[in-house]
Amino acid sequence: MGGAFGNASELAYWQLRAFYLVNLLISFDLVRRGLEIARQGLEPALLWPVFWVDGPNFETAATAIALALPVTAILALWYHVSWWPRLLVFLAHLQFAALENSFGSINHLLHYPLWISLFLLLAPVGPRPQARAATSAHMRVLYPAFVAQAFVGLFYSLSGYHKAYSGFFPSSTGISSFHPDALPLLVLRRWQETGKEPMLGDFFVSNIELAWPAYLAVIYFELFFLVAVFRPQLHRLFGLALATFHLGVWLVLGIAFPYQPVLVALLFIWSPFTAFDQATMGQRLGQLPGIDLAVWIYRRTAREADVKSQTQSRA
Q: 1: pLDDT confidence band, cut at 50, 70 and 90?
């Protein structure tokens, strides 16, 4: 177990550094959008983190917020054993997210970089613990990774809950999420709203036999994502499923979430807790919510039957 903790904390350490490398790519992409916000000339309804941005100097302040993203990203990479650059990364993301969401709509694209940068403030500073260090030292490295996973899992499970709820209790103007036509109708509605045909939109509209199980799988993996957080055997599977889901949303609905797939893959496919996973593929599948209940019922029934058989043989 000591070796497993050492391997896990090693993975968590490099996962932390990889996040700030990914954050550098994200920040350079956001600079362009920030400069567009600064020059678009619209009147914002400023959210509380950017209360200090006044009207006459709006373009200057918005430009400064945009440029702060790559600057803080570089600092976090350079001073990776210090705490203050991580804090600056979080504050830069908070400022940018508040600025971009000050125009009457909410952009969910920025939530993962923002929240993950907050949770990683909990990571200890200094060099990573040696393999033979105390378990508590390894746990301090692992704790931020777990918190980030738990919140991301919660976000997905809430999304899955709403889909499942509308499946059991559809609105009067819609159909159940479990209906075979749910995804094709969603594609057509999105197609009509944007006037642009998604890359695979027509394919899924024309092939309900593929669209239906694909949509049900999305609901399943989202709904039980928080459960999977507590089962390291499922981290890679759920990470791959949700990273693929975001790619599918782009191909089928034309909605791009470029940051989410890489961050989900970073947190779960490269999960440090997979160092504790010694399960076989069959055992991993047995951990899937629903299948685990079926396995438990089967084993309990078999055990009771065995006890009953032994009792009868003794009689």
A: low
Q: What are the Cα distances from residue 224, in Å, to 109, 171, 217, 231?
A: 22, 23, 11, 11
Is residue 104's pLDDT more than 90? no
Q: Which token pair is 61?
A: 């302040």
pTM: 0.91
